[in-house]
Write a structure and sequence with these properties.
mainly alpha, 2 domains, 12 strands, 7% strand, 12 helices
Length: 398
């Protein structure tokens, strides 16, 4: 399968000079629905993941708008609000833990790779202002871990990021309901793969091999649970537990994007090419390798349908779904870059895990390998390679 390149056209359609409109009717922005920190943070994240975004003025402009939105969303108490109306009025009665975690993830990533030095400094400052965050909620902790890990790549001595990473990791590590159900909650709910992803990323950043193994084991279990035959069948929007039927609907693009990210980080951390295969299979979910054999991605608009339903697809192309698909397609380039690195290194293992400990010395950027790398990929790997765009810079948890 040949994968399309990320297309930011629809993301730009959903954005204005305030932020990113949450919902769409088909491809038209539903301005009455306003904006959320959740989506704006995701938007900033995908732009910071885009290679050479600083050379694309429209992406630089979007990054500035999104970062400014996050600046205004942070309250004087150091907590993030989430919802803003189209009239620019905050609607939340209390802070949102998930939104706060996602904001930290985006800010940590922006501090590392925003398209300008000024934005990097601003993101770092905002991250530190929001870093006293403490929450019992698993996904909010996972998002914050990913942000702290990203910031520590550019500033390994940052005490705010170190303390946040330690606090959130303690909240996550070692949680399980039972031996038969190792998930840290009674049922799968949403954005599930972020939990094992954050464990393996935190373990890699802190040279904690047992934590990496815990994350990999939990991710393997999740892959097994969410695989039906040759394709992924993700937990539906209402959640899932063992005694409930499959497939379940509606399935959300958010789930597929989380699985892609987690599998790609697992490939980098472990060097096991099977994780790259699984990551690509999760990308294929957007392109028809799913329970309905239907494509959710619209190559013409760059948008993504809002879900896979029992009767087909939800044709609305909202911000969350569109950003999920952009993020997944970005990771295809990262996989290809890592496969090229693997070949250039003579097929030796790449990744953090080496023997019984993690090895951070080989966890740096894979470098700006020449784009035409399909020629150097081994025959065994070649089925998984796309038409190459410039490789994605290597950062964990992005």
């Amino acid at each position: 399968m040949r994968f399309p390149s990320p297309n930011f056209q629809h993301l730009q359609r959903l954005s204005d000079d305030t932020g990113l409109i949450e919902h769409a009717w088909f491809e038209l922005p539903r301005r009455c629905c306003g904006y959320t920190v959740d989506d704006v943070a995701r938007g900033l994240l995908v732009i910071c993941r885009e290679p050479r975004a600083e050379t694309v003025p429209r992406l630089v402009s979007l990054a500035e708008i999104y970062l400014d939105f996050l600046y205004h969303a942070l309250g004087s108490n150091g907590r993030y609000r989430n919802r803003m109306s189209y009239a620019r009025e905050w609607l939340d009665e209390s802070p949102s833990d998930d939104a706060h975690g996602r904001a930290l993830w985006a800010l940590g990533t922006a501090a590392l790779s925003a398209p300008s030095a000024a934005m990097k400094r601003a993101a770092n400052r905002l991250f530190e202002a929001a870093s006293s965050f403490d929450t019992p909620y698993a996904r909010a902790n996972a998002y914050a871990i990913l942000g702290a890990a990203a910031l520590l790549e550019t500033d390994p001595r940052n005490d705010h990021a170190k303390r946040l990473l330690e606090r959130c990791t303690v909240r996550l590590q070692g949680l399980r309901v039972s031996q038969q159900w190792p998930w840290p909650e009674p049922r799968l709910t949403y954005d599930n793969a972020r939990i094992p992803q954050s464990l393996l990323v935190a373990g890699a950043v802190t040279d904690n091999a047992p934590m990496v193994e815990e994350g990999l084991a939990l991710l393997k279990w999740l892959v097994d649970v969410e695989t039906q035959g040759p394709h992924f069948s993700f937990a539906p929007s209402g959640g899932w537990r063992e005694d409930e039927p499959r497939p379940g609907f509606d399935q959300q693009p958010l789930e597929a994007a989380a699985m892609v990210d987690a599998c790609v980080d697992a490939f980098w951390v472990s060097g096991d090419i099977r994780w790259a295969d699984l990551g690509l299979n999760a990308v294929r979910w957007f392109l028809g390798a799913n329970d309905k054999s239907l494509t959710l991605y619209d190559e013409n608009t760059g948008g993504c349908c809002d879900g896979l339903t029992a009767s087909g697809v939800n044709e609305n192309q909202g911000a969350e779904s569109t950003l999920a698909c952009i993020a997944a397609l970005q990771q295809v380039r990262r996989i290809d870059s890592m496969l090229a690195h693997r070949c250039l290194q003579g097929e030796q293992q790449v990744g953090f895990v080496s023997g019984n400990r993690t090895n951070r010395t080989i966890g740096g950027p894979v470098g700006q390998i020449d784009g035409a790398i399909t020629k150097s990929v081994s025959a065994a790997d070649k089925d998984h390679v796309i038409d190459i765009a410039p490789p994605l810079p290597r950062q964990l948890g992005r």
